């Protein structure tokens, strides 16, 4: 096994061989991450070994203060940018990034509203104490039941996505006598520079109305007495680093906004989320303050050109709030050197989770970094690939990273920046139970979502204890064993 230099052909453009394989690169770890005097990683004062001993691995660790700080910083950035143009900004936390009642509590306490996109997310937001009037409800295929529930609880706005949905909603408000504020989601046609599956505002995809169809949608909404059209919505994609795409999109949407003013006031313009974060040292996202200023300026400029008032602005960041606050802890199970040619050895490091707790590398080719968490090492940097335990060769957690060459079974491995779209996209592939989520703050750790057990998984298999006899309709199923205690 040989450590390699980054000039080797088979080594990807990133990562560069680190000067120190133990170093915690500031941009991708929560600010509270540090190594204690024994070299053990700690997050918000709780050591990785304590977390392993108390809660097991794999484990999602969420730094509460990091979530709160990012929420405050983002809200301040957009409020300040909007204030420069005499308007207000509302920031919705995009719950799809990571939703639990505790996280809802944190972000709402910090002043954020909440964006949900299914009845399930709505239920969690409400259970977490979110004010319904400060919930935005998204989705390209909301069911009748979901729409009825949203109207019944009084969500602040429903972001409509199709003509069929407008008719469903019209029927609900006519029948119930309710009044519902509605935004119309549009495709600005801007293709954000990001992975294709993450880009959502070019026209050949499922979300929103084209700029051509949107006026018809707004006209129809304005005909329905119980529906109140309050603004346009546009989300161009996710993990976007520069502000050019947002500004171009804002310009196009403001043009439509200006045309629609002929039919009445439009108080809000919602420009979605998608603000990128650093997953590796190769990523260089624009600070949120610069993005906020640039977007607000673009909107104000376009409004000035058209001689119209600047609307209040709304945004929906998910990843930018929670991404960097999350770290996943794994235990190394096996290692295997593989000769990949050109005198280069890649060390495969298998951990006890994988694509079931983080499907992003398999879904989008997402890149992550990693560090040994249970100790430091003086060994040479070794090109490594961190893989999971699932039956897929694409079950990769960290595609390329330099880890100490003496990494071995039993070591704890920490993968930073796993706060967004890991827990929420997790699956039970290969019947692997989903890990618990532990919140850390000021030296204390507590479970906020318990881990699944094998019993949880078997509990859904209604034929599990039925033997060979098919269970007839109306027959009761056997009672399964008690679920294990929260880990
Ligand atoms: C409509 C909408 N708003 C907000 C977001 C949040 O995006 P991000 O987490 O990248 O900020 C998404 C993500 O898919 C989205 O579809």
Automatic annotation (TrEMBL):
Region listing for Disordered, in residue ranges: 465-487
Keyword Transmembrane helix on entry: no
Catalytic residues (UniProt): 391 (proton donor)
Enzyme Commission number: 4.1.1.20
Catalytic activity: meso-2,6-diaminopimelate + H(+) = L-lysine + CO2
NCBIfam families given in the database record: lysA (TIGR01048)
Protein name: Diaminopimelate decarboxylase
Protein's gene: lysA
């Amino acid at each position: 096994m040989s450590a390699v230099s980054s000039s080797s052909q088979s080594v990807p453009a990133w990562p560069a061989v680190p000067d120190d394989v133990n170093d915690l690169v500031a941009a991708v770890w929560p600010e509270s991450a540090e190594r204690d005097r024994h070299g053990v990683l700690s997050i918000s004062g709780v050591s990785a070994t304590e977390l392993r001993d108390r809660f097991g691995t794999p484990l999602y660790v969420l730094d509460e203060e990091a979530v709160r700080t990012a929420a405050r910083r983002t809200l301040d950035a957009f409020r300040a940018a909007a204030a420069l143009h005499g308007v207000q900004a509302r920031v919705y936390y995009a719950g799809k990034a990571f939703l639990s009642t505790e996280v809802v509590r944190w972000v709402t306490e910090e002043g954020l509203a909440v964006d949900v996109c299914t009845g399930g997310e709505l239920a969690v937001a409400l259970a977490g104490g979110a004010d319904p009037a400060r919930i935005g409800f998204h989705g390209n295929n909301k069911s009748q039941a979901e729409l009825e529930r949203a109207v019944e609880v009084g969500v602040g706005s429903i972001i409509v996505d199709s003509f069929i949905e407008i008719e469903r909603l019209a029927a609900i408000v006519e029948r119930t006598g309710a009044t519902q504020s509605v935004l119309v989601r549009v495709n600005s046609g801007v293709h954000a520079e990001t992975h294709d599956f993450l880009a959502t505002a070019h026209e050949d995809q499922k979300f929103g109305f084209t700029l051509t169809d949107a006026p018809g949608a707004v006209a129809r909404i304005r005909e329905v007495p119980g529906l109140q059209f309050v603004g346009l919505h546009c989300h161009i994609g996710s993990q976007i680093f520069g502000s050019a795409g947002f500004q171009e999109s804002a310009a196009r949407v403001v043009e439509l906004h200006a045309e629609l003013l002929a039919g009445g006031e439009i108080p809000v313009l919602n420009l979605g989320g998608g603000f990128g974060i650093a997953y590796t040292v190769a990523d260089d996202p624009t600070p949120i303050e610069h993005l906020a200023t640039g977007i607000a300026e673009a909107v104000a400029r376009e409004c000035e050109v058209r001689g119209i008032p600047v609307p209040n602005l709304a945004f929906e960041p998910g990843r930018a709030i929670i991404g960097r606050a999350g770290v996943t802890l794994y235990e190394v199970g096996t290692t295997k050197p593989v000769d990949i040619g050109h005198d280069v050895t890649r060390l495969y490091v298998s951990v006890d989770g994988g694509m079931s707790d983080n499907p992003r590398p398999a879904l989008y080719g997402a890149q992550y970094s990693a560090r040994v968490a249970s100790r430091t090492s003086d060994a040479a940097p070794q090109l490594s690939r961190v893989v999971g335990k699932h039956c897929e060769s694409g079950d990769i957690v960290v595609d390329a990273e330099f880890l100490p060459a003496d990494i071995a079974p039993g070591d704890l491995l920490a993968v930073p920046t796993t706060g967004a779209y890991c827990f929420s996209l997790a699956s039970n592939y290969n019947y692997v139970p989903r890990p618990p989520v532990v919140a850390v703050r000021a030296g204390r750790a507590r479970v906020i979502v318990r881990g699944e057990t094998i019993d949880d998984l078997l509990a859904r298999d209604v034929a599990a204890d039925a033997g060979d006899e098919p269970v007839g309709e109306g027959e009761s199923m056997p009672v399964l064993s008690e679920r294990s205690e929260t880990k």
